[in-house]
């Protein structure tokens, strides 16, 4: 069977190879975990025929394989189950497949050189396929835990602290896979892979990772972007519903609280963005109206000037003429109104530019305060309704 191997991970590829160097603390890996050597052993695409290496004369009785096409077909209607199956395969199933193939190689190899060659191919296959899943899962969780940051950071004075360390999580999952692989080799149960050995959030249990993967891959409903109370109420309800879904996952308290913080950041970012959009549209609407009025007055002033010039041409320009005096008075009033309009337009431009340069000041605007109050009132009301 042909196995396509993807490009190795830059930071984690070495941990899945039995032939690369692994540095450890004096206390041992159980104390602080393995320090990974970034030696870049797999920086190119590779393809090999595992069946011919294991048994040149016959189809191999088993192969390490991972077909994303098959996985997509099997879970076409359930992407959450598909992603969970991929993770389970990497941590649990691949360990058993590796043990079976390793045993077969040791029993059937005719020489030490043949055994070494086949084990190297097996290690490469395991490393590449499991490494690909680790990279994908880490990217999924990183995207989720940072999903509310970009929008909220736009309207915040200080950048928000990260909720997730992708590198630490990837290293932890890689160590989890190796632990599973080692336990299977030693005929131990894999259930201890769920144990959490320290307080780092990213070093979550296997069951927590499975739950988070399922949650972030389920279909999400979008909240329409509109700057009014119904929008704020929709945001509030979405956050409450998300929180209840997270409670139902059965994950540890630290994971639960971190996930709820993601939802809170998403909600707050939506409120600030909606208020900012409302303010920007309001500036544009007000400016357009002022400019239309300025244009109307400008046309009136032009007509009055033309009337005065016509009177002059006809020799009828008499400073004591009531008609002329009325025209000149209206002309002066129009000029004054146009001056005031120019000032108001300039003030609007300065206010709009100030908000654009300092987007965090949106929280000082009445539009945001009204949205925030509607959001908080709805959270309290909706929560009470669900609990009653």
Q: What does this molecule look like?
A:
- There is one protein chain.
- By secondary structure, this protein is mainly α.
- The N terminus is likely disordered.
On the 0 to 100 scale, the average pLDDT is 78
Approximately what portion of the residues adopt beta-strand conformation? under 5%
**Sheet having the most strands:** 2 strands, antiparallel
Q: State the helical fraction.
A: 55-70%
Number of helices: 12
Distance between the termini: 59 Å
Please write the string of helix (H) and strand (E) elements.
EHEHHHHHHHHHHH
Helix and strand composition category = mainly alpha
User: Can you count the beta strands?
Assistant: 2
Q: How many domain modules?
A: 2
Strand order of the largest sheet: 1-2
Spatial extent as radius of gyration:
34 Å
Low-confidence stretches: 1-69
**Which descriptor suits the 3D outline?**
elongated
């Amino acid at each position: 069977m042909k196995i396509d191997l993807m490009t190795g991970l830059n930071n984690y590829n070495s941990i899945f190879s039995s032939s690369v160097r692994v540095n450890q603390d004096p206390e041992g890996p159980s104390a602080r975990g393995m320090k990974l050597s970034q030696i870049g052993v797999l920086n190119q695409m590779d393809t090999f025929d595992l069946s011919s290496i294991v048994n040149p004369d016959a189809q191999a009785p088993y192969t390490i394989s991972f077909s994303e096409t098959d996985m997509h077909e099997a879970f076409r209607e359930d992407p959450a189950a598909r992603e969970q199956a991929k993770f389970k395969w990497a941590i649990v199933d691949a360990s058993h497949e590796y043990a079976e193939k390793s045993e077969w190689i040791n029993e059937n190899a005719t020489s030490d050189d043949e055994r070494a060659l086949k084990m190297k191919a097996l290690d490469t296959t395991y490393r590449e396929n499991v490494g690909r899943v680790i990279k994908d899962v880490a990217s999924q969780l990183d995207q989720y835990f940072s999903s509310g940051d970009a929008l909220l950071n736009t309207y915040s004075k200080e950048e928000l602290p990260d909720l997730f360390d992708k590198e630490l999580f990837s290293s932890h999952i890689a160590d989890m896979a190796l632990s599973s692989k080692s336990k299977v080799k030693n005929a131990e149960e894999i259930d201890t892979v769920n144990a959490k050995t320290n307080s780092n959030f990213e070093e979550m249990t296997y069951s927590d990772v499975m739950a988070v993967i399922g949650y972030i891959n389920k279909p999400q409903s979008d909240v329409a972007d509109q700057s009014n109370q119904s929008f704020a109420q929709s945001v509030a309800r979405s956050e409450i519903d998300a929180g209840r879904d997270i409670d139902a996952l059965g994950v540890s308290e630290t994971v639960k609280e971190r996930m709820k913080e993601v939802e809170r950041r998403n909600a707050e970012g939506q409120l600030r963005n909606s208020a900012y959009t409302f303010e920007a549209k309001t500036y544009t609407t007000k400016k357009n109206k002022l400019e239309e009025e300025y244009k109307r007055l400008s046309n009136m002033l032009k007509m009055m000037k033309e009337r005065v010039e016509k009177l002059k041409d006809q020799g009828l320009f008499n400073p004591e003429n009531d008609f002329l005096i009325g025209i000149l008075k209206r002309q002066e009033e129009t000029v004054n109104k146009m001056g005031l309009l120019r000032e108001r337009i300039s003030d609007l431009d300065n206010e709009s530019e100030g908000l654009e340069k300092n987007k965090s000041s949106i929280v000082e605007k009445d539009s945001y305060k009204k949205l925030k109050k509607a959001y908080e009132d709805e959270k309290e009301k909706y929560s009470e309704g669900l609990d009653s």
